[in-house]
Amino acid sequence: MKTVAIDQQRIAWTHSRRAFLQQSTTGIGMLGLASLLAPTAFAGDQQHRVAGTLGQLHFAPKAKRIIYLFMSGAPSHLDLFDPKPKLIEMTGKDLPDSVRRGQRITTMTSGQKNLFCVGSPFKFRKHGHVGMDISELLPHLSTIVDECTFLRTLHTDPINHDPAVTFFATGNQQPGRPTMGAWLAYGLGGDNRDLPAFVVLTSGGGGQTLQTRYWGSGFLPAQFGGVQFRNAGDPVLFVSNPPGVSGQTRRQLLDATNSLNRLALDSLGDPAIAAQIENYELAFRMQTSVPELTDLSVESQETLDLYGATPGKPSFANNCLLARRLAERGVRFIQLCHRDWDHHGNLPKGLPVKCTETDRGAAALIVDLKRRGLLDETLVIWGGEFGRTSYSQGEIKPDSFGRDHHPRCYTVWMAGGGVKRGYIHGETDDFGYNIVRDPVHVHDLHATLLHLLGVDHKRLIYRHEGRDYRLTDVFGNVVEQLMA
Asked: Residue 388 belongs to a domain with what CATH number?
């Protein structure tokens, strides 16, 4: 009897005036917000319409989607993109105090008696009309330099991996906020109702752990988070029906479940229930769309050779080819994560391995998108969470040394989707330690990426716990120089 009384009290509360106001404010607010963000959405103007909450873009987009190639662990810009002869000259000598300027360093090197400079052991050559310096470790990237923008002066706030990855993904060091892909899924939606708007693919082993919140929805409704495709078995867990369960039976079960969920939604107004209904429906549609999508055996041998992909054998190359197939099908944000770029030691041996695993597939993605007419509307980004230090972590040996974390400056490259072709942005000092020209903060990059997709970063907003939030928080400036 006591349990019944408690249940009756709970039901009475959910139907009270106070509960109604608490549960409806978000929905009412979102209706008002939608009318402010897209005032022409109700006027029959169909130009630049999108399926997400915005309804209509703020201005004409240069790109429709993003493919983000995330190199987890932070590749060394000094050994791949930003050669420094001064470091070779200074190898084994202390980093001058005038360069460090008392800036914070990690506890992994702060206890060292000396911070010895160390030059790159790898050879560089200039490539393309722009004369971009590319390491010998990236021979495939060197062939597509004239398609790319190289941003040499990106800088960030955190100095350790997890907060830095979180910061690049969400614009904040603390977990709990929506990731960039979730913001785009929320604001713009996808162009294919049978696939998620935000898909994640992972590869590589070792190194820093990939947290699922790196592609999470934060405080946005759950359906906007990234859907991870697996490398073995079903691409998505339980996408296949179990033995003895037909598609018709699954549909009947889903209809019955959703009927109960809608009753609960009408009664409680909990947005998590609405997200669950949407996720169930999407999962059912994916039972048909995903197996066809992930079957790489239908690709020509020439295409497989271009990427270095092998159907049925998980790899970064396979994921790059799958990213192109996702782009063709209208997925808004595609995130590829490749692990183990964290070279605190043994960099001369470890870095070539990572480059061999990723260079061919990344370059092939640009070539393949271009020949299929997709590159102009697809923005590809390659990079990690920060750079690496110009001084060595630990002892410098002829064939072994390491580099610590360095948030003050590092390099990412981009191609397609409205960025300049064959362009180098910014300059670092002779030690690759500080920026001397044209700095770009992560918030600025976020603002620019949204701008390329037709979104004003100051107007893609979600109200949470009484405050308006956005990807760029209260910061960010669009970097016009990066755009074609």
From this structure: 3.40.720
